[in-house]
Amino acid sequence: MSKMASMFRPKKLDLSGFVNTRLIRDHNKRNAVEQTEPERQALRYLIRNTSLPQRVRAQAQLQLSQMHAYTRPTQIKNRCVASGTARAVFRDFRINRFQFRMQALAGELPGVKKASW
Length: 117
Prior knowledge:
- Belongs to the universal ribosomal protein uS14 family.
- Helix content is about 45%, strand content about 5%.
- By secondary structure, the chain is mainly α.
- Helix 2 packs antiparallel against helix 3 (about 55-65).
- It is elongated and about 65 Å long.
Protein backbone atom coordinates (compact mmCIF):
# COMPACT_ATOMS: atom_id res chain seq x y z
CA MET A 1 0.00 0.00 0.00
CA SER A 2 1.33 3.41 -0.89
CA LYS A 3 2.21 6.10 1.60
CA MET A 4 -0.49 8.37 0.15
CA ALA A 5 -3.29 5.81 0.61
CA SER A 6 -2.37 5.21 4.26
CA MET A 7 -2.64 8.96 4.89
CA PHE A 8 -6.40 8.93 4.30
CA ARG A 9 -7.33 5.86 6.31
CA PRO A 10 -9.30 6.39 9.54
CA LYS A 11 -7.09 6.98 12.56
CA LYS A 12 -7.60 7.72 16.21
CA LEU A 13 -7.99 11.48 16.46
CA ASP A 14 -7.16 13.83 19.29
CA LEU A 15 -9.84 16.41 18.51
CA SER A 16 -11.32 18.08 21.54
CA GLY A 17 -14.92 19.20 21.80
CA PHE A 18 -17.56 18.49 19.19
CA VAL A 19 -16.60 15.93 16.53
CA ASN A 20 -18.48 15.20 13.32
CA THR A 21 -17.48 13.81 9.94
CA ARG A 22 -16.77 17.25 8.51
CA LEU A 23 -14.31 18.05 11.29
CA ILE A 24 -12.59 14.68 10.83
CA ARG A 25 -12.32 15.31 7.09
CA ASP A 26 -10.93 18.80 7.72
CA HIS A 27 -8.40 17.38 10.20
CA ASN A 28 -7.26 14.83 7.60
CA LYS A 29 -6.96 17.54 4.95
CA ARG A 30 -4.82 19.71 7.23
CA ASN A 31 -2.50 16.78 7.98
CA ALA A 32 -2.23 15.86 4.29
CA VAL A 33 -1.41 19.44 3.28
CA GLU A 34 1.22 19.69 6.01
CA GLN A 35 2.92 16.45 4.99
CA THR A 36 2.95 17.07 1.21
CA GLU A 37 3.72 20.81 1.17
CA PRO A 38 7.51 20.45 0.55
CA GLU A 39 6.86 18.12 -2.40
CA ARG A 40 4.25 20.48 -3.84
CA GLN A 41 6.63 23.46 -3.47
CA ALA A 42 9.39 21.57 -5.30
CA LEU A 43 7.05 20.67 -8.15
CA ARG A 44 5.81 24.26 -8.42
CA TYR A 45 9.41 25.46 -8.56
CA LEU A 46 10.17 23.03 -11.40
CA ILE A 47 7.08 24.15 -13.32
CA ARG A 48 7.96 27.85 -13.06
CA ASN A 49 11.68 27.44 -13.84
CA THR A 50 11.95 28.48 -17.50
CA SER A 51 15.60 27.41 -17.79
CA LEU A 52 14.60 23.74 -17.50
CA PRO A 53 13.61 21.68 -20.57
CA GLN A 54 9.92 21.74 -21.47
CA ARG A 55 9.64 17.96 -20.97
CA VAL A 56 10.77 18.17 -17.31
CA ARG A 57 8.36 21.02 -16.64
CA ALA A 58 5.49 19.10 -18.25
CA GLN A 59 6.26 16.01 -16.17
CA ALA A 60 6.26 18.11 -13.00
CA GLN A 61 2.92 19.65 -14.02
CA LEU A 62 1.44 16.20 -14.62
CA GLN A 63 2.75 14.93 -11.29
CA LEU A 64 1.31 17.94 -9.45
CA SER A 65 -2.09 17.57 -11.10
CA GLN A 66 -2.25 13.87 -10.20
CA MET A 67 -1.70 14.45 -6.48
CA HIS A 68 -4.67 13.80 -4.21
CA ALA A 69 -7.16 16.65 -3.84
CA TYR A 70 -6.72 16.68 -0.04
CA THR A 71 -3.10 17.79 -0.49
CA ARG A 72 -4.18 21.16 -1.92
CA PRO A 73 -4.11 24.06 0.56
CA THR A 74 -7.28 25.50 -1.00
CA GLN A 75 -9.23 22.47 0.24
CA ILE A 76 -8.87 23.57 3.87
CA LYS A 77 -11.94 25.31 5.26
CA ASN A 78 -11.99 27.07 8.61
CA ARG A 79 -14.50 25.28 10.82
CA CYS A 80 -15.79 25.93 14.31
CA VAL A 81 -14.26 23.45 16.75
CA ALA A 82 -17.25 23.77 19.06
CA SER A 83 -20.09 23.20 16.58
CA GLY A 84 -18.48 22.10 13.31
CA THR A 85 -20.06 24.87 11.21
CA ALA A 86 -18.04 26.69 8.56
CA ARG A 87 -19.76 30.07 8.55
CA ALA A 88 -18.65 33.21 10.45
CA VAL A 89 -15.62 31.55 12.06
CA PHE A 90 -13.19 33.80 13.94
CA ARG A 91 -9.67 32.65 13.04
CA ASP A 92 -8.13 33.70 16.34
CA PHE A 93 -10.50 31.56 18.40
CA ARG A 94 -11.50 28.93 15.77
CA ILE A 95 -15.15 29.22 16.80
CA ASN A 96 -18.13 30.76 15.02
CA ARG A 97 -19.77 34.01 16.06
CA PHE A 98 -22.61 32.41 18.01
CA GLN A 99 -20.28 30.14 20.01
CA PHE A 100 -17.96 33.13 20.55
CA ARG A 101 -20.83 35.16 21.98
CA MET A 102 -22.00 32.34 24.27
CA GLN A 103 -18.50 31.56 25.56
CA ALA A 104 -17.61 35.25 25.99
CA LEU A 105 -20.78 35.92 28.01
CA ALA A 106 -20.06 32.85 30.13
CA GLY A 107 -16.53 34.15 30.78
CA GLU A 108 -14.82 31.17 29.14
CA LEU A 109 -12.66 33.26 26.78
CA PRO A 110 -9.76 34.97 28.58
CA GLY A 111 -9.32 38.64 27.81
CA VAL A 112 -12.73 39.02 26.14
CA LYS A 113 -15.42 41.15 27.68
CA LYS A 114 -18.60 42.78 26.48
CA ALA A 115 -18.05 46.28 25.18
CA SER A 116 -19.81 49.15 26.91
CA TRP A 117 -19.24 52.85 26.54
